[in-house]
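User: I'm preparing a small set of examples for a lab meeting where we compare how different chains pack in three dimensions. I only have the primary sequence for this one, and I'd like the structure in token form so I can line it up with the others. Please keep the answer compact; I'll paste it straight into my notes.
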Amino acid sequence: MLWAALFLSASQPAPQPGDGPDSAGVMRISLPVALQLAQVRPIDIIVAGRRIEVAQAQFEKARVLWLPDLVVGFDYLRSDGKIQRIEGEIINASKGAIMAGAGPVAVFGLTDAIYAPLAARQVVRGKAAELQATLNDTMFQVADSYYTLQQARGELAGALDTLERIRELERRVVKLAPGLVPDVEASRVRAERVRREQEVERAKERWEVASASLGAVLRLDDVALLSPMELPHLVVELVDMDQPVEALRGMARGMRPELGAQAAGVEASAARLKQEKARPFIPSILLRGAATHPGGTLAGGVFGGGINGEMGDFGGRNSIDLQILWEMKNLGAGNVALIRERRAQREVAEQELVKTRYQVDAEVLQARSRGLRSRARYLQAELGLREARASADKNLQGVGLLRRNGEMVSLMFRPQEAVQSLQALSNAYNDFYLAVAERNRAQFQMYRALGNPAQALDPPAETEPDRPEALPRPAPLIP
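Assistant: Understood. Below is the structure token output for the 479-residue chain.
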């Protein structure tokens, strides 16, 4: 995978690994680690894996329908009272019999033995595709949560930088002569400083909330706060968004596991339809033991009995009942209804496949649009942040510089102008880190929309930035 580091900044070093984890439950984490954890921890993946096991067991069961059950045990028969002889005479009888042995039991339709494994195999294939789709969805969910965390951390870095600048402005205003700065402007600076302090607290809150959300996705225990190792303005490139739409749509139709699952469902329903069409013409098998009383299950073994409670004359006995039966359900009307039901189920599966194909096409178009537009917004936000920083620096440096107009002396830059530039800088920071997060999310969204397997995503470690402009260093860990 191609991960390009397109940074605005990085003259300052990233936080060192020694910053965490610590006794307060702070955990340092990177995106590669989060993605690796996602393949083994989330509940959705575990459930999808169990569904494959269920489908595999059902497939194995369908493959052995040809084999009979084997029963082993004892059969005891006792009869007292009137019975009827074959000739019709009613007599009193008291007799008993016992048998110890075994016997086969098999009652199945040959159509089930032929077609059920075919349908079950497709169900297994569909469940495997659903597991892959769950892995891909989880990958995107983890990436989305991770970049929400990164966005919050970047916003905190911007809020801290802006707060430090407003404090510097406040110190400079205090040093100015009262005649140069009206009280109202000094109050405005102090009010803005309080507002920036509140913004820092809100940014910390967003970081903590985003950390809790990512921890819930990864099922991390005893972790109070997650702190990303990468710089918050890291930009990743997974997919070339400039590719033609038809090329992207073709890749998605060939790789999306959801389409594979739906196609397997169509094949399974087609096998069941063939099964019902063939049912009236292919017999069913009934095999059971008949060595004991009618309807018994033991076929061979040791048999003995006698009058009243006597038991004797034991010896071997064997009796098998094998029937080959053609069945017309409800004089054939039931078979016709079953065929109509299976045909309708196949048509529903086909329509679901078509519906999913259109949904896949829409997701590709949506991801491409978001990728291209978020890239444009990122470039605009980068320029806007650069200009906002330059404006804030000039205004802050200009506070305290005097200019003379005749006999009058005035400030070259008034504190009010510096406050406005810092407000613009705060907005520019938020716009920039939002644009970074949206651009990265769009990359993962397109990666998933194309059906690329989550297991193939192997992002490298963070690389050094290659651009000289400086952004504030990532925020420190929250106490």
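A couple of notes for your slides: The mean pLDDT is 83. Helices lie at 31-38, 43-63, 110-175, 183-218, 245-255, 257-278, 333-398, 415-449.

User: Perfect, thanks.
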